[in-house]
Q: What sequence folds into this?
């Protein structure tokens, strides 16, 4: 029997594969297609205080081995979430991490306070890194002292796991991870999307309505691995590795460079059951390598640190 | 019920210049599909192309479904290269079907270019329900014209190489003014400028009209939120083409 589970602040996740915020709706959209009880957890679509319409089309463009999106945090708002979605999520046999996005510190606090009064939420992931909204989003996520303040204030409001989702669109992501750790957060999600752009050469216009968007998918996996590796050198709190994971092999790479667990994102758009497949593949890999605990893979990469260019950053 | 299945290509035909019909064997999808619905297809096991591509279900024949598409990019070029016996990954049937029942006697089908895709399926159903059908098809040129498995077809081409020279909506307006039809309902699919013209005409004439829209979508099931269309009224600004469409009453949406 292989131990697949891991814990954050005393909350036990049955395996190390979660589905990433914004790629699995509120869980109920694909309940006929996916057995969510085989996932470590579900990170919901970002919630704000009021419903958000999101950005005008065009919101999605496929690019080589990836996709650019500019959804703009379209969501039903925390009140509708509590009324319409939480009853379903209370019944699912997996951990439910509610992702919160906001355009002010006050809004983050208000949403979290309201969710604290509800049953059925196992933890929070804080989106300080959406590249596609004017207020909040990246303004917060690229400001280290703001990221710290948000983490501190939310920490004071909850005893549940508090996970901060970091952006790669900064010079040294490890500085942000350290700030968040010092502020008392329990884990970091690394990475959110990478700012990118695509141009329609016939119309001579950007393909996305917001000009730039967030790149995801296999195209960003090498970036994500390097960021997870960097953060793993800098902090002790668990890292949830995200970025282009399509297979168990991808997930294992993330664990080896220091992720405690992973989130599957864009792959859900192609096959909503990818997370289940990745979890199954991870278990099989551990079996084949006669590991007692998948944790033995975490940070198990052997590397020549003296050759790592990261050393100069840390 | 939405199925996700690896299915086999059982038919392939180039029906006009650069336009292909592909038949896929899937009794489950065929049995539960309704006209106006679509499937989201993955036809590469690599990351090129990465995402599925949505296609109208053009026809159901026994246990197979037919897609109609033109080669416009890397993805559709790859799809056109599929041969009988190859397998593709299908998710569907998806979306809200056309409202084919109720208070109309004559279905007026209006299609521009590849907008014909959903209509052979709808035509088959309407014929079984003994509705009268009048079909108007527009294309750039006769070489790209597809009218197979449609009923009572009138044609418009941009270059006049076949039928009426002009747009399909111009052809429709002329026809309906000279030969009014009894209790019509219109069904439209095609490029956005054509749908805007059709919608304006339908609302002016007071004719009920359903449009089938395209959207730039990734998942097809409401996860990615990638395919908004502006709603004409209501509290929410956008509807999602994949789960609230692709068929919409033309009065419910604003085309840009």
A:
């Amino acid at each position: 029997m292989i131990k697949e589970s891991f814990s954050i602040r005393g909350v036990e996740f049955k395996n190390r594969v979660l589905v990433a915020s914004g790629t699995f709706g509120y869980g109920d959209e694909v309940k006929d297609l996916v057995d969510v009880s085989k996932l470590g957890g579900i990170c919901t679509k970002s919630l704000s205080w009021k419903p958000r319409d999101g950005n005008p089309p065009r919101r999605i463009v496929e690019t080589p081995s990836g996709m650019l999106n500019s959804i703009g945090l379209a969501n039903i708002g925390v009140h509708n979430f509590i009324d319409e979605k939480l009853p379903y999520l209370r019944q699912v046999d997996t951990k439910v991490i509610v992702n919160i996005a906001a355009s002010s510190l006050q809004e983050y606090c208000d949403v979290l306070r309201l969710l604290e009064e509800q049953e059925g939420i196992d933890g929070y992931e804080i989106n300080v890194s959406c590249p596609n909204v004017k207020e909040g989003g990246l303004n917060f996520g690229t400001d280290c002292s703001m990221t710290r303040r948000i983490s501190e204030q939310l920490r004071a409001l909850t005893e549940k796991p508090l996970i901060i989702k970091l952006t790669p669109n900064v010079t040294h992501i490890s500085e942000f991870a350290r700030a968040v750790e010092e502020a008392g957060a329990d884990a970091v999600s690394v990475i959110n999307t990478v700012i990118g752009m695509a141009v329609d050469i016939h119309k001579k216009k950007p393909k996305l309505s917001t000009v730039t968007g967030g790149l995801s998918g296999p195209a960003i996996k090498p970036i994500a691995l390097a960021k997870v590796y960097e953060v793993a050198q800098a902090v002790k709190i668990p890292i949830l590795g995200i970025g282009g994971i399509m297979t168990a092999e991808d997930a294992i790479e993330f664990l080896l460079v220091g992720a405690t667990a992973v989130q599957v994102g864009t792959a859900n758009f192609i096959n909503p059951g990818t997370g289940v497949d990745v979890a199954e593949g991870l278990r099989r890999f551990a079996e084949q390598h006669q590991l007692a605990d998948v944790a033995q893979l975490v940070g198990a990469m052997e590397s020549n640190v003296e050759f790592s260019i990261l050393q100069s950053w840390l | 019920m939405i199925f996700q299945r690896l299915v086999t290509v059982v038919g392939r035909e180039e029906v006009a210049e650069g336009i292909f019909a592909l038949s896929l064997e899937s009794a489950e999808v065929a049995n539960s599909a309704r006209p106006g619905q679509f499937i989201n297809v993955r036809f590469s096991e690599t990351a090129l192309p990465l995402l599925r591509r949505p296609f109208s279900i053009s026809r159901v024949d026994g246990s197979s479904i037919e897609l109609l598409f033109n080669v416009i990019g890397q993805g559709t070029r790859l799809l056109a290269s599929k041969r009988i016996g190859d397998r593709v990954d299908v998710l569907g049937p998806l979306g809200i079907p056309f409202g084919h029942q109720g208070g109309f006697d004559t279905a007026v089908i209006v299609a521009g270019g590849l907008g014909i895709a959903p209509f052979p399926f709808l035509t088959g159903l309407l014929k079984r329900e003994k509705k009268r059908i009048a079909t108007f098809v527009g294309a750039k040129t006769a070489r790209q014209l597809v009218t197979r498995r449609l009923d009572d077809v009138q044609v418009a081409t941009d270059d006049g190489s076949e039928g009426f020279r002009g747009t399909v909506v111009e052809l429709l307006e002329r026809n309906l003014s000279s030969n009014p039809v009894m209790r019509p309902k219109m069904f439209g699919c095609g490029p956005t400028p054509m749908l805007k013209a059709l919608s304006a005409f339908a609302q002016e004439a007071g004719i009920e009209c359903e449009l089938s829209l395209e959207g730039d979508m990734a998942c097809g099931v409401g996860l990615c939120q990638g395919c908004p269309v502006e709603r004409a009224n209501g509290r929410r600004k956008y509807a999602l083409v994949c789960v609230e469409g692709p068929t919409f009453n033309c009065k419910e949406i604003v085309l840009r």
